[in-house]
Known about the structure:
With about 90 residues, the protein is of the alpha+beta class.
Amino acid sequence: MSIQVEVFSSPGCGKCGHAKVVLKKIAEEIGGNQIEWREVNILDEMDYAVEIGVLSTPSIAINGELVFTSLPSAKKLRAELEKQLGLDGHQAPA
């Protein structure tokens, strides 16, 4: 099973850069092949961002559904990703 994670950001957003670093680290720890992620510049994809409800950056969507409307703690992000992957808080085998 894999999930798609999208990080919505805007140019010049300091918190957005941090969100990308945190997400990439967690994705690699869980298993990079299980998490497909992409960065979405809201200026380039404004219609899509509005469609799923992004009102501020950074926001994070999982499988096309807005899950975080602000930067979550690393612990909350990890817990949500593991829940979405059906890992229930257990580390995936390497």
